[in-house]
Each structure stands twice: as structure tokens, then as C-alpha cells.
Design brief:
Helix content is 70%, strand content 0%.
Amino acid sequence: MAAKPKSPTAKSATKDKGSVKKVNFLQELMWVFERYGFSQVKEFISDLERDVSSNIQQEFGLQEFAPKNPNQLFLVGVLPKIFSDAKIFSSNEEIANFSEDILKVKISRWEKKSRLELIGHIVCSTAQADDKKLEQIATALKKLHSGRKDADIFLEKSRQDKKSWNEIIQLLLQSDQ
């Protein structure tokens, strides 16, 4: 025996219940915002996200793989983005030179490797880099990759003047950009 189709009034009653639930939810949400303030609710959400992230890391044992050095973590995230930017590194040779001069990571036969292979090799090698050197590089790259127009102009001028990456890093470390 087939189930009876719902009558039009039954459909509208179900629809009304859904609307009532939504209205009730929004009213309660408004009460929370009025009671605690929007900024405090945002803070609660951030705390909850941090707790959830921490719990996930503990549950899966991910913290043992996380680098202890925050500069290492920063560089692992930023280096691929910077190396992928053709305005900063227009060729694989520039990436290989940066790697050797700044990170002290020599890449054999770099001319036979793709850009992505170079980036992967360099990022994996940051785990063995000197902490003090990583700190200097991270500080300089934060200034370079700040998204500010003057950082782009500085980089362009340095590249036109044929400055080495070592000189550029030193200038960035000395500048107040």
C-alpha cells in the first residue's frame, strides 16, 4: 500500500515549522550577541577553533611532526608561494641561486628539474637549516611579502640594479619597510 501524498495544508504546516525553527534560532543568536557582544562571540569561536585544532593534533599525533621553530613553519608556508611568483623568481636558475646563496642548499642538476621539483627540494631542506639563518630569512621575506607596494618597488629596483639575493636580504633586514 503506497503512502498517501501530503495534502497542501500538511506541506505548508511542515514549511511553517521549519520557518518557526529558523526564526527561533535567529532570535536566540541575537540574544547571544546582545548578551556577550559580537567581539566576545568572535573570541569564543577562535578559542573553540584552537581547542578543536589542538584536539585533532593530539588525537592523530600530529604535533610530533610540527616543527618546533616557528620560522621553519613560516618558511614552509611562504617559500612555495614566493618561488611560484614569476615576478620575484622568473627562472629556475634564480630559484637555484637563492637556494644555494641564502639557504645554503645546493641543488644538483637544477637545470633538469621542474620548478615544482626545485620548490619541493628546497622546502624539505629547510628542516636542516640553521635556526638563526632561518630567522633572518623569515624576517626579510615577511617584509618582502608584506603585500605593500613599496616592497614591490624595492624588489624591482634591487633586481634592476642586479643585486644578489644576499644583498637584497641584508637590505631588507636593515630597512624599516
